[in-house]
Amino acid sequence: MSVPRSNTRLSLPLSPSLSLSLPLSEGQGTELTGLFVERPQENVVIIAGMTDRRTDGKPTVKWLKGKWLDLASKAGKHLQFKETYDRETKVRKYTQTAGAAGAYRCEVTSKDKFDSASFEITPQSSLPITPLFHPPTSKPPSPLSAITPRHPVIDVWELLKSAHPSEYEKIAFEYGITDLRGMLKRLKKMKAEPKPSEAFLKRMESCYSVEKGKKIVLTCEVFDPNVQVKWLKNGQEIKGSAKYIMETIGNIRKLTIMKTTLADDAAYECVVGEDKCFTEVFVKEPPVTITKLMDDYHVVVGERVEFEVEVSEEGANAMWSIFKDTNPAKYRIKKDGRKHMLIILEAGLEDIGMYHCWTNGGHTKGELEVEEKELLVLQDIADLTVKATDQAIFKCEVSDEKVTGKWFKDGVEVLPDERHKMTHIGRFHKLLIDNVKPQDAGDYTFIPNGYALSLSAKLNFLGKEPLTPVPEKHPPKIHLDTTGNMVSQNTIIVVAGNKLRLDVEITGEPAPTVVWSKGEEVLTPGWRPSQCQVITATEGRVRVDNRKTLSSFVIEGAEREDEANYTICVTNPAGEDKAKLFVKIVDVPDPPQNVKCLSVGEDSSSMVWEPPAFDGGAPLKGYLMERKKKGSSRWTKLNFDVYEATTYEAKRMIEGVYYEMRVFAINSIGMSQPSITSKPFMPLAPTSEPTRLLVHDVTDGTCTLKWMAPERIGAGGLDGYIIEYCKEGETEWVVANKELCERQGYVVRGLPVGEKINFRVFAKNLAGVSPPATLAQPVTVREIVDLPKIRLPRDLRTKYIRKVGDKINLVIPFQGKPRPVVKWYKDGAPVDEKIVGVRNSTVDSILFIRSAERDHSGKYELVVQIENMEDRATIDLRVVERPGPPTKVKVTEVWGFNAALEWEAPKDDGNCEITGYTIQKADKKTMEWYTIYEHNRRPSCTSSDLIMGNEYMFRVYSENLVGPSEEPGLAYNPPEFKEKDVSCIPTFTQPLLDRSVVAGYSTAMSCSVKGFPKPKIVWMKNKMILGGDPKYIMLNNQGVLTLNIRKPSTFDGGRYSCMAVNDLGQALVECKLEIRSKADENC
Asked: DSSP string of 924-986?
């Protein structure tokens, strides 16, 4: 609640619920909105009233400002509290005189009971205050605007900077700043002037701004490149992570914040020792778009309206606007995830208008149409004839389920008691009278509350005195009551689904026999399925209940098939009597058929449908139409009064939006089911006329027109253009193009020479043809002779050079009328169009080559000719590439530390002049090439600063406009080195010798072998390969092979062999080893 800062009284009754009332002072000239009727003055007085009847003893009252500030501690000049008690009314009043704006709350506590009331006081001066931490931005009007005016804004921080410290608390209290400590901390940082720093060469910016979800980099520069820094966020140290990345690049220190969120909106510091560098980061939320647009509503007075939109981000803010003076208390704003709703509890005629919803990235609107209520009687009350002790039921149906009403008998209200009961279920209202008595007969009326409408019916009591029996015989007699449901002498109308009970009084002695028949069928108690239709006396939907003096014909839940002629026949020995009745069943009509759209406009559509196949047995009164946007579930009524025709023009639609429509049929019984929904249709409008229509060219039989697109195209788009012409003085227009022209230009052909012709152009789209664009003056069709002239571009007047492989596209404009003949020649011969492409138009000629080759070089000549007149232009095209290497490069002389080189020009210059040479040298030891001359113009040079005794190589590259040659010319070609083939088969140069050793003493056998590749050695004993036995040690030292046998025994004697194998062959040597025992040796 917004309260101007002036003399205002707010009364708050605290229990059981809290409310606000504002009696204001008089004499104010400014018009106020909302709850105010006149502008108040001076201080604000808030009164809280509470009755002691609902509490035990004196309650505890606490006044709070913001969330936590207890105003009792601030009592003084600006805050005064007063308590009064009225003994008669037992009401306590607590008064607070406040001199500041902000959010207030009053809390009342009494033992186990608690209640509170919240309200807000906002100054309504010429300079309203904005929220502290959110600078004002350009936004749409605030929700339920017309309550708060727009004014210039005060910057509270600038006010605090210039104020004396003793006034800080007063300013904070006046402008609603509840966090005084946080305000002082921030103000201290803002007022602190930057001091010359020895630690920082460059500080961070004072503040940074970043969009939510993006990254931001905070950068500062320190004096010492090796110093360590700390990064703080709101005074807390930041640790390096995937979210916070800290970098050190020389003297620069960086803090990168990845994927910023609203939690990153804080103060950041870079700390070097005791020196700090401070900045603030402001995180901006991305634009919130509207994903589901607002629907239109068409309701009656008193109905609930719920405008709903859906935004792209959950929890985002949406603003609602009405742009009219209204009471905001009747509106409710609700948020549910991404859905935002504006609810009007009970719509009135004053709520008609456009409603807008804004986000910071989108806007939508919906229209509300409110009609006055009109109550339709769907089923009237029927007259009843009831006998004594039976039950009478009066029943009616109206169109509104919420309507209540009263029942009257002969003008006196019927009150519920044991016999009279009133029910209201949906649209049906019933009066039930049990145990009918003679005094119940009379006129009964039902009057709906709030409507000048009444429904009446008559109750007839059937309770005559019993006939005195006479011994004579009397013929039977049928006593039909022609009142009640009978619309004519013998016709009874029954609404489908209702119950029909026809009580017929019968007289006659003896008691007559009663037979009911339907058409040709007889209804008797002895009916069986193989015979006629018969209903038993106690069950069945259609039944007959016969008594001595009364016969009742009953149909439960009447159906269309029950409509027929019925005959009652009574017989006794004294005679017979008959009566015929026609029972007519009426029902709601069938739905209308074939609902479709005939045509559309910019904001309208013409709809047509066919009447229902069955009118329900009652004449049709008319139709009700509804429409909705495609994809929406909300149907909007188009009419509240019954519409009689079968065509309807729906208006006030949005162009470019698909709609669907359905129709209801209405008769005296009620409303039908909805028709099948029409096919979706879109309101569209033709475009505006084309603009800037002009004549571009005229010949003996053609006229070239050009124009611009229409200024307004609309949602229907633009399909093309239609061009028409007619002779001057005539009215018959001829269509020039058989198919739509999609371009903004057209050549009209076949025009009569010398005639004056008028032209016009239409734009066409799905909605139809636009108004025409016409020429102000007619055009005379005749040839304008113009000599041929070639306008050669400036860059083609000199030699045109391109590289091999380039694309060549030469556009040569020319002029001449009539259309000239264009020819191309290369070196005096016509160009081969298989090699070179040529395209000609009326104003230029294009010569193009997809991939240039050196063969394309030459002089190209363009000839433009009109009869015996012509113009020529020559283009010198040269296609160039890299040159070949220089030839005959040689060292002509060597002296001291110098060497002289000479060479000849390359055989292939690349089709352009050689511009120079590049000479390089390399030491044969390192083979690293160094450039000693670049762009050398002469075919010789001298290389200096050579090292005596080293061997050098030289190479030379030739250069032209394209670049250096791909291959160099070499001055020294070393002979190729051929390795000597030293491969040979294995050969033993020293064989194995027979040995004789004493058992127990280690021995060795040796031989030598040569061969390349190095042979593989295999030792064998008695032709068995020696494996991994540790007793045998096999050695190979530069081809000398040794087999050591450790402590041989007599079993180790035998023939040993050594085999050498490589890719070329193998060799084998053998020896005999004899082992002597120690005993033999001692002998």
From this structure: TTT--EEEEEEEE-SSEEEE-SPPTT--EEEEEEEE-SS-B-SSPEES--PPPP------EEE
Position 931 scores a pLDDT of 93
DSSP H or E segment with residue 222: strand 216-222
Q: What is the DSSP letter of 802?
A: E
The SS3 call for residue 72 is helix
CA atoms within 13 A on the CB side of 930: 10
3-state SS string for 640-665: CCCECCCEEEECCCCCCCCEEEEEEE
Question: What tokens appear for 29 in the block?
Answer: 């000239």
For residue 194, give both structure tokens.
């930057």
Q: Average pLDDT over the chain, rounded to whole?
A: 80
Tell whether omega for the bond before 286 is within 30 degrees of 0, i.e. cis.
Answer: no
Task: Express each pLDDT in 115-148 by its tens digit.
Answer: 777 676 755 433 333 333 333 333 344 443 333 3
In the block, residue with structure tokens 């060497």: 899
Pairwise CA distance, residues 698 & 780, whole Å: 8
For the segment 842-868, what is each residue's pLDDT rounded down to a tens digit? 889 999 999 999 889 999 999 998 877
Give which of 716, 719, 651, 657 is closest to 682, Cα–Cα.
657
**pLDDT of amino acid 662:** 94
pLDDT digits (tens, 9 = 90+) for 964-986: 998 888 875 555 666 778 889 99
Which pLDDT belongs to residue 933?
Answer: 93
How do residues 319-334 score in pLDDT, each as one tens digit? Answer: 888 756 666 677 888 8
Element holding 117 (H helix, E strand) = strand 113-121
200 contacts 277 by C-beta, under 8 angstroms: yes
CB contact at 8 A, 304 and 347: yes
| pLDDT on residue 40 | 37
**Which residues have a Cβ under 8 Å from the Cβ of 780 and sit 6 or more positions away?**
698, 754, 755, 756, 757
Q: How far is CA 640 from CA 372, 449, 470, 608, 664, in A?
A: 9, 20, 64, 18, 12
Q: Which of 297, 294, 302, 303 is nearest to 341 (CA)?
A: 294
Q: What is the pLDDT of residue 124?
A: 46
> How would you list the strands of the sheet with 80-86, edge to edge?
8-13, 44-51, 91-98, 80-86
Distance, CA of 769 to CA of 733 (rounded, Å):
15
The alpha carbon of residue 959 and the mean position of all alpha carbons in its chain are separated, in whole angstroms, by: 60
508 residue type, one letter: G
Which burial class, exposed, middle or buried, applies to 675 when counting CB atoms under 10 A from its CB (0-12, 13-18, 19+)? buried
Q: What is the pTM of this model?
A: 0.36
Tell me the two tokens of residue 702.
């053609």
Q: How many CB atoms are closer than 10 A to CB 452?
A: 7
Q: How is residue 465 written in tokens?
A: 């005195």
pLDDT at 444 over 80: yes
- Show the CA angle centred on residue 261, arms to residues 258 and 263, nearest 5°: 115
C-alpha closest to that of 493 among 315, 675, 408, 616: 616
Check pLDDT > 70 for residue 69.
no
Express each pLDDT in 552-581 by its tens digit: 888 888 888 888 888 888 888 888 888 888
Which residue type occupies 971?
Answer: A
Q: How many CA atoms lie within 13 A of 519 on its CB side?
A: 7
Secondary structure of residue 170 in the 3-state scheme: helix
Task: Reduce the secondary structure of 274-310 to three states and give it as a string.
Answer: CEEEEEEEEEECCCCCEEECCCCEEEECCCCEEEEEE
What are the C-alpha distances in Å from 616 to residues 529, 584, 662, 670, 818?
30, 11, 19, 9, 78
Cα(first)–Cα(last) distance of the chain, in Å? 137
Q: In angstroms, rounded to a whole number, what is the distance separating the alpha carbons of residues 653 and 627?
A: 10
CA dihedral 984, 988, 990, 996 (to 10 degrees): 170
CA distance 341 to 356: 12
